[in-house]
User: Fold Threonine synthase from Paenibacillus solanacearum.
Amino acid sequence: MQLTCIDCDRLWELHQPRIRCACGGLLQIEQQWKRLDADRLKRLFHARLAERMTPYASGVWRYKELIHPELPDEAIVTRYEGNTGLYDAAATARFAGVRRVLLKAQSENPSGSFKDNGMTVAVSHGHALGMNRFACSSTGNTSSSLAMYAAWCGKTSYVFVPEEGVADGKVLQTLAYGGKLVRFPGTYDDGLRFLEAHADEFGLYVCNSVNPLRIEGQKSIVFEIAQQLEWSMPDWIVVPGGALSNAAALGKGLQELQAIGLIETVPRVAIVQAEGASPFHRMVEAGERTLTPEPRLSTRASALNIGSPPSWKKALRTLEHTNGVTVTVTDEQIFAAKQVIDRSGIGCEPASAATVAGLKRLAAERIIDKDETAVCILTGHLLKDAEALAGYAGRTPEALELRMRERMLDRASVDRRL
Ligand SMILES: N[C@@H](CCOP(=O)(O)O)C(=O)O
Assistant:
């Protein structure tokens, strides 16, 4: 395994806690795939589905050979993350206007979001390096995930969370796991800038997705999708775009699956941003190759409130490799999609619903054909953002209809309402 700068190709030592190259570029892990045999790997990954209470029971560490082969098993910090459902969602497909939609519910992870796939790898690596103080900037999911894994391996987490625009449930979840919370005026971008500048002084191991080990772990989402679909890929994979780590990991994972010979065709990737926080989409639409950060953010999908997505260069590579697209959706479109996903019995937080809203828009614009199949990645659990539910779930016509106006709970008044 090698740690390489994506801008200047300089190599760095993997066994030192380092986030960026001296030139400022992001780092990425590179491995040699030549010695790997695709059929042998398929058999191995299949056999590991029967594992119980070993690191290989995890839906991330099942793919250890493709993620962090050098890490000793004893250093693995796992909550058996991954292993999430891939659901054939007919009502969602009808809403989006395409033949088939599969929802990949990363919300079923132990802390309720896709961050766990990457966090188990970053924390395990930091643990193996002997780090004791872990840190992140977060809009709430990363902080919950980090606080959970740090607690599980007996370490301390310091989480920097903006004072405004973060769902209360996520902050409470982080605190409940024992995360040391630093609230500050500003955004995720400000928190990350602070950590990148000061982590070394404070002896902090940064677990945001600028840490390349996070991306390695998040690749397992597409590995699982591929295995669940018996190594035959859908036409499209749709992801929400905030910090863009999901898009970065998806592209890297697809590229590797193809290089090893585990899949033949690569699906197209669609990255969906909220209109109120869409610096990456604006760059792509303008045909530019330099991202202009968006200082003022305004989306109710709070996990997407990111104006300077650190992984934008990696996400751009994903688009290039997969002939991908970007699209934006309004908060209204996000909430309309969320209602369909919630009512289908799966449920998700608002940012996740951006995928289905984006799919609907891309199908309406005929960028996605109605006969194509799409996998939408649902990044966070329905209960992550209870305020968002209060915004609409209690106000649907059916809920009003069933409300007990008589304020009596007896047989006769219930009978009249049903
Ligand atoms: N929405 C994210 C933002 C942090 O992203 P990361 O990729 O740097 O972990 C969150 O939940 O905090």
Summary: The chain is about 40% helix and 15% strand. The domain at 86-112+214-395 is CATH 3.40.50.1100 (Rossmann fold). The radius of gyration is 21 Å. The longest strand covers residues 156-162.
